[in-house]
Structure formats: C-alpha cells, structure tokens
Amino acid sequence: MGDHERFWSKTQSDPEGDCILWKAKRNRDGYGVFRWLGKIRLAHHAAYELEHGKSVEGLPIIHSCKNRACVNPNHLQLFTEAELHTLQIKVGEQNQGEQNPHSRLSVEKVRQIRKEAANGVKFVQIARNHDIGQTTVSRIVHRKIWKGIT
Ligand SMILES: [Zn+2]
C-alpha cells in the first residue's frame, strides 16, 4: 500500500461538515498521529505534506475549521513563525483604539498564560503577571480566543 492510500484509509468524512476526520490514533492534545517513514508524525502535517509534496516539519499549521482531528488539506494553513507574528500585528492594528486584548498579546504570551493556568496559577495572579484582565485570561485558557495557538 502506498503512503497516500495508507494515510487516507485511516480517515472518514465528517457527516456534519466538509472536514475529513482522522479515525486512527490521536495524541493527548487530540491531534491525529501517523507513523510515516519510521517517524511518528502529526496526521494533519502528514496530510499537508502528502498534498503539497514539501516538508513542513516543525512549522505551525493552523486548522481553519478549528477541528484538531481534521486532516482535510483545504482546511490546513501553513504559517511560518514570522507570518504568524505579522498576522497578529495586523489584527492588533485593525483593532487599534478599541479595547481589544489581541493587540496586546503575542503567541509566546498566550502559550505562557495557558502554561501558568495548567500549573494551577490563579487567573487573578496570571492577569497581574501579564497586565491584562481576568476575563481575558479566562477566555484564553478556555480557548474562546486565540484558538489557533497551540
Ligand atoms: Zn476541517
């Protein structure tokens, strides 16, 4: 069986949308995993590579559908860290003048905030650490905002 065939045999279409769901093994974060060329790879990364024929190892790939188990190449967007950063600056600029938490946060901060919450730091303390509101902390931790950042 070829790689393409083997990969797609582990998927099924989503009855509720146009996602293609990974039905084999998933990791702790809910992403599909696929053993390929002797390595354990993220299934959505493998889907992107099979579709586009280039290596994306270690690069951030965002699910436009927010569905971590999805491997539909049309729902996968590749970003370099630099592009991701630029995107965030744009979001910040668009919302200038408004009280928008996006403009004051970076990927690193969001990751740090989620890490602190996972380690049991109270939201009020996290809010103080990062000079943001408690509501924003809660929305970040519960993935109401910055959902694409993992
Ligand atoms: Zn999808």
Task: Outline the structure in words.
This protein has 150 residues and is α+β, with helices and mostly antiparallel strands. The protein folds into 2 domains: 3-78, no CATH class; 81-141, no CATH class. Helices cover 39% and strands 13% of the residues. It has 6 helices and 6 strands. The strands form 3 sheets. Strands 1-2 form a two-stranded antiparallel ribbon. The protein has a two-stranded antiparallel ribbon with strand order 3-4. The protein has a two-stranded antiparallel ribbon with strand order 5-6. The site of zinc ion has 6 residues, from loops.
What's this model, at a glance?
This protein is of the alpha+beta class. It has 2 domains: 3-78, no CATH class; 81-141, no CATH class. It has 6 helices and 6 strands, in the order H-E-E-E-E-H-E-E-H-H-H-H.
Task: Give the SSE map.
Blueprint: H1 3-8, E1 11-13, E2 20-22, E3 33-36, E4 39-42, H2 43-52, E5 61-63, E6 76-78, H3 81-94, H4 107-118, H5 123-130, H6 134-141
Antiparallel strand pairs: 1-2, 3-4, 5-6
Zinc ion binds at residues 19, 65, 67, 70, 72, 75.
